[in-house]
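thought: fold this chain, then report.
action: predict
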Amino acid sequence: MLGMARSFRGSSVKSLINHGSGSCAVFGITTQGSSVIKSGTTGGAVPIGVQRNRSGEAQIKIGGRPVRAVAELAEQLPLQVITAESFGLLTGSPGARRRYLDWGVFHVEQQFFSQWQRFQRSIKQRNNLLRRGKISDQELAAWTRDLAQTGAAISTYRKDYFQKLAPCFKEIMARLAPSLDELELRYQQGWDRQLTYSEALAQGFAADAEQGYTHSGPQRADVRVLAGGHLASETLSRGQQKLVVCGLKLAQGRLMGELGRGTCTYLIDDLPSELDYTHSVMVCELLASMEAQVFITCIDQREIQSVWPESGELAMFHVEQGAVKHQSVG
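observation:
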């Protein structure tokens, strides 16, 4: 809620608001160096707050100033979430993998978000024109030109990031699952790689005009996870898939730190599920080595105590009937 203005379970906030109340609010303090400068505050600590009403309206404040864009909140508190839904990175639609890739690009490339916004506006306008019975050639050409420029920029940002991410993922998986030595990440840009995006749009214009939408572009990009040349979702066991998902998320967190963009906070729901003791220990050791803040939920606190490194700092909290209590670890 504090990093995305919503729950990871979905966009609706009604389930987060107490019965009989009209709104809910969450407050916190972040200490990300680069974000401190952007928020206009000093001292290394930035207060942030989010209030959501039952109507869906959101009020966001960073460093005491109101902000409108959730992107500013995400920039202030980068989050990596690992839940049962995270398997969608392997088994779900390309959209889930594009969002995964764009999370990383967003946090390391300052120009990405503005280009992404321009691209979304351009493709919406172009598709609206294509769906009309009579096309204004001049207007269509203008939006196509802007689409080609922003689409090419987005693809370049993604490729540059992916070239750094792939070896980082490979290194982490070598530690988590040495037996899966044939794992490979493959990036597909969304059009024929032999063509520029302008050429691809020109080549596909007839099909676009006939069917009323833009076929090629960054909106069709994908990141495939392969094991021995085959889709990991079709060849790996459930436990192996969870290790791959953890590897994908951990790689992004590590890369963010290596590029000097700060650290992200990990939210992990039921870590021991589908992972044996040995692999749970490996994941926790990697998390601890990143010196990131990590929140892990489980049914039995011993499940976490037994796998978290003894040298790592650990705090336990118990939730019962809406109240959160700090518990001693021992």
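thought: worth noting. Residues 118 and 132 are 22 Å apart (CA to CA).
final: tokens above.
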